[in-house]
TrEMBL record:
<feature type="compositionally biased region" description="Polar residues">
    <location>
        <begin position="57"/>
        <end position="66"/>
    </location>
</feature>
<dbReference type="InterPro" id="IPR011614">
    <property type="entry name" value="Catalase_core"/>
</dbReference>
<dbReference type="Pfam" id="PF06628">
    <property type="entry name" value="Catalase-rel"/>
</dbReference>
<feature type="compositionally biased region" description="Pro residues">
    <location>
        <begin position="35"/>
        <end position="52"/>
    </location>
</feature>
<feature type="domain" description="Catalase core">
    <location>
        <begin position="84"/>
        <end position="472"/>
    </location>
</feature>
<dbReference type="Pfam" id="PF00199">
    <property type="entry name" value="Catalase"/>
</dbReference>
<comment type="function">
    <text>Decomposes hydrogen peroxide into water and oxygen; serves to protect cells from the toxic effects of hydrogen peroxide.</text>
</comment>
<keyword id="KW-0479">Metal-binding</keyword>
<dbReference type="InterPro" id="IPR024708">
    <property type="entry name" value="Catalase_AS"/>
</dbReference>
<keyword id="KW-0376">Hydrogen peroxide</keyword>
<dbReference type="InterPro" id="IPR043156">
    <property type="entry name" value="Catalase_clade2_helical"/>
</dbReference>
<keyword id="KW-0349">Heme</keyword>
<dbReference type="InterPro" id="IPR020835">
    <property type="entry name" value="Catalase_sf"/>
</dbReference>
<keyword id="KW-0575">Peroxidase</keyword>
<dbReference type="InterPro" id="IPR010582">
    <property type="entry name" value="Catalase_immune_responsive"/>
</dbReference>
<keyword id="KW-0408">Iron</keyword>
<dbReference type="InterPro" id="IPR024712">
    <property type="entry name" value="Catalase_clade2"/>
</dbReference>
């Protein structure tokens, strides 16, 4: 067999071993591990490594100093058909250690055993101290050219395309924690520009808990699990978190965002992103403006419900990373527009009375429009999680010419922290030479040696000035696009440990956020505070946080106090008269449904032809159909992705009922808790649960044919967002229209205005 054609070789083995079924079970539904279906028998004919899956990308093969090598990206991976040592010597056996006889002791001379075990012993590196849990993807950024007037950054010139790598993350949890916890999400983007790498290291929430970086260890120690019992994992619902934020009231603005639906995104694809700080942009003429960066998702901002988030935490803790990878594999590429709010660079560094250096404040979009400057498309998943997502190292100081920092004291501390943390995490100072971090620009930095040095520097004079290396490297001027720190005038002032007085307003924008929410979003916020504070042990901490809520809004405070069984305190600050910002609400607009998951309940005795048509129509509409059947394998000619026993409503954005399947043989309470107590129903109890949960989470539900009777048995027929249609096509069209608003909001009653 020709070993240069590995995919072909494996395909042949698969065909003969498992025939038609293997092909049919892995149709267009994303998520198959490996680039070819595995054969039943262990393959024994040597061939080269399988190619990566078609949707997988990898860092370009650049040298450590940024030069293109022209080698394909798979050259970074394993080579050849045969098992070798780390030094390339071929091995005959890796299953037995070298022993003094089959029953004898293992010999110290077994270099292969020692290499294998020693390397394994050192596979782990320290996880990130924050943002440990994350998922990344490759993509491309295309500039509109609309920022050319305000910045000379080359990658923002019209039509320029720049490779990017984006890493999304939660903040508090460990590397193995669940994706759907209530938390802030990181949104860090590495632009490999030809003028040096630009890292935009942002979050999905536009404000931060603290105004000065020196408080970062405090807020993180408060949010992380308690140091004695190390619980709770990846949660803010505990005493130390609420102890800190109720005492340190500048955290209240970020906290209300976390308690809102923004704290539990539906998907990374449905998150906004924010640079948070104000940056300074410089154009060709040396003129400056202040600016804030925003990412706007093509699919709009959507969130889970708290109940969904909790269920998914157990059912599919990898929900967000799976969603990201599956969407890319399905061709529903996640997309955002990058936008900027632009402000005049005045000595006061304020806009409409808002201090632009205070990272606990936003500038409402109604006051300063977000102007789109480019489009980000994520179109390739990583080939190797560790090499790419784990080893990627972001740093706020990775700035191209045209983008500079401001004196925001939070930003200033971050400029120190990111390089510092990589020294420990990535084991030395050469982390920019790791493939995912290699710049796509020529590097000539005079930094030398250190652990894991990959460059082979020539010359004898890594210093300036020199004559021995002919004077190289030379300083660049404006013509060569040098990064020049903007010569901002620093106002004369005493050296102090203090904040500007404007930083003392901790409540007005929290109130602004609250008043900008729709009634249903307010309900969710009330429930979130009640849940989180309800999890606190100490009454004093709840009372102290209620005081902060009283300073935000009396209705919010009263409602949460009622849930906690405590009296609502009076405000201690005057409640400001603020103008709401409708742009902050997620409700009321319509968005595309690309890459959404549609569950289709199938009855093996029902309309299978109709199911096949609907399944195809879901694919053509850019969504992913998952068939839910009484048993796995095939139903007729259709492959099943979920069974009544393995599926759960929270995986789906909408549900279609193609039949009324009778209780399956495994609908036994003894075997599947979801089967519940046997009921007189003629429909499988797991299907009824699916419909009830989908209804409770305000998802669109459609049915046709016998499926309509399920709606009746579940008691949801005729309610908003529940469609009894004449055909599968009709049901799908109606459900897709409903999905545009994300949820059937009328189903959430609201007690507050
Ligand atoms: Fe970070 N932050 N941060 N942060 N941050 C880190 O860097 C830090 C802050 C953000 O996917 C660490 O490589 C300080 C704000 C993201 O790899 C560390 C302060 C914002 C990520 C660090 C902040 C962020 C990090 C941990 C207070 C939004 C994940 C590992 C001044 C604008 C990046 C690492 C990734 C990661 C320090 C506050 C975003 C320790 C000192 C504000 C998205 O260096």
């Amino acid at each position: 067999m020709d070993s240069s054609k590995p995919a072909e070789a494996v395909k042949n083995v698969v065909k003969t071993a498992s025939g038609k079924i293997a092909d049919a079970l892995t149709p267009d539904v994303p998520g198959a591990p490996g680039s070819a279906p595995p054969p039943l028998e262990e393959p024994t004919t040597p061939h080269d490594p399988l190619p990566p899956k078609s949707e997988q990308g990898a860092p370009q093969t650049r040298t450590p100093t940024g030069a293109e090598t022209g080698a394909p990206t798979i050259a970074n991976g394993q080579q050849g058909a045969y098992l070798t040592t780390a030094n390339g010597a071929r091995l005959r056996d890796t299953d037995h250690s070298l022993k003094a006889g089959p029953r004898g002791p293992v010999l110290l001379q077994d270099h292969h055993l020692r290499e294998k075990i020693t390397h394994f012993d050192h596979e782990r590196i320290p996880e990130r101290v924050v943002h440990a849990r994350g998922a990344g993807a490759h993509g491309v950024f295309t500039a509109y050219g609309t920022a050319e007037a305000v910045t000379r950054a080359g990658f923002l010139k019209k039509g320029r395309e720049t490779d990017v790598f984006v890493r999304f993350s939660t903040v508090l949890g460990s590397r193995g924690s669940a994706d759907t916890v209530r938390d802030t999400r990181g949104f860090a983007t590495k632009f490999y520009t030809d003028e040096g790498t630009f890292d935009l290291v942002g979050n999905n929430i536009p404000v931060f808990f603290i105004q000065d970086a020196i408080k970062f260890p405090d807020i993180i120690h408060a949010g992380k699990p308690h140091p004695d019992r190390e619980i709770p994992q990846a949660q803010s619902a505990h005493d130390t978190f609420w102890d800190f934020v109720s005492l340190h009231t500048e955290a209240q603005h970020h906290t209300i965002w976390n308690m809102s639906d923004r704290g539990i995104p539906r998907s990374y694809r449905t998150m906004e992103g924010f640079g948070v700080h104000t940056f300074r942009l410089v154009n060709e003429a040396g003129e400056t403006v202040l600016a804030k960066f925003h990412w706007k998702p093509k699919l709009g901002v959507h969130s889970l419900t708290w109940e969904e988030a909790q269920l998914i935490g157990g059912i599919d803790p990898d929900f967000h990373r799976r969603d990201l990878y599956d969407a890319i594999e399905a061709g529903a590429y996640p997309e955002w527009e990058l936008g900027i709010q632009v402000f005049p660079d005045t000595p006061e560094e304020t806009f409409a009375g808002i201090d632009l250096l205070d990272p606990t404040k936003i500038v409402p979009e109604e006051l300063a429009e977000v102007q789109p400057i480019g489009r980000l498309v994520l179109n390739r998943t990583p080939t190797n999680f560790f090499a790419e997502t784990e080893q990627v190292a972001f740093h706020l100081g990775h700035l191209p010419p045209g983008i500079d920092v401001t004196n925001d004291p939070l930003l200033q501390g971050r400029l120190f922290s990111y390089v510092d943390t990589q020294l420990t995490r990535l084991g030395g100072p050469n982390f920019t030479q790791i493939p995912i971090n290699r710049p796509h620009a020529a590097v000539n930095d005079m930094l030398r040696d250190g652990f894991h040095q990959h460059a082979v520097h020539a010359g004898v004079a890594p210093y300036r000035p020199n004559s021995l290396d002919g004077g190289n490297p030379f300083p660049a001027g404006d013509a060569e696009h040098a990064f020049v720190d903007v010569p901002v005038t620093v106002a004369q002032a005493p050296k102090v440990r203090a904040n500007p007085a404007s930083f003392d307003d901790h409540y007005s924008q929290v109130r602004l956020f609250w008043l900008s929410m729709s009634p249903v979003e307010k309900e969710h916020i009330i429930r979130a505070y009640t849940f989180e504070l309800g999890k606190c042990y100490h009454q004093t901490i709840k009372e102290r946080q209620l005081q902060s809520l009283a300073n935000i809004d009396p209705v919010l405070c009263e409602q949460v106090a009622t849930g906690l069984g405590l009296p609502a305190p009076q405000p201690t600050v005057p409640l400001p008269d603020v103008t709401p910002s409708p742009a902050l609400s997620q409700v009321g607009r319509e968005w595309p449904s690309d890459g959404r998951m549609v569950g289709i309940v199938v009855d093996p005795d029902g309309d299978l032809e109709g199911v096949d048509e609907v399944r195809r129509a879901v694919f053509s509409a850019g969504m992913v159909p998952l068939l839910i059947a009484p048993h796995g394998g095939m139903v007729g000619d259709l492959p099943v992705q979920r069974t009544f026993a393995t599926g759960r409503s929270v995986e789906f954005d909408a549900v279609l009922l193609a039949g009324a399947p009778a209780p399956a043989p495994d609908a036994l309470p003894a075997r599947d808790a979801k089967a519940g107590t046997p009921a007189p129903a003629t429909v499988d109890p797991r299907v009824l649960l699916l419909v009830e949960e989908s209804w409770r989470h305000a998802k669109a539900i459609g049915a046709w044919g016998a499926g309509v009777t399920v709606l009746e048995q579940a008691g949801v027929a005729g309610t908003p967002g529940v469609v009894a249609a004449g055909s599968g096509a009709e049901a799908l069209t109606a459900v897709q229209q409903l999905m545009a608003a994300h949820r059937v909001w009328e189903r959430f009653p609201a007690a507050v205005a």
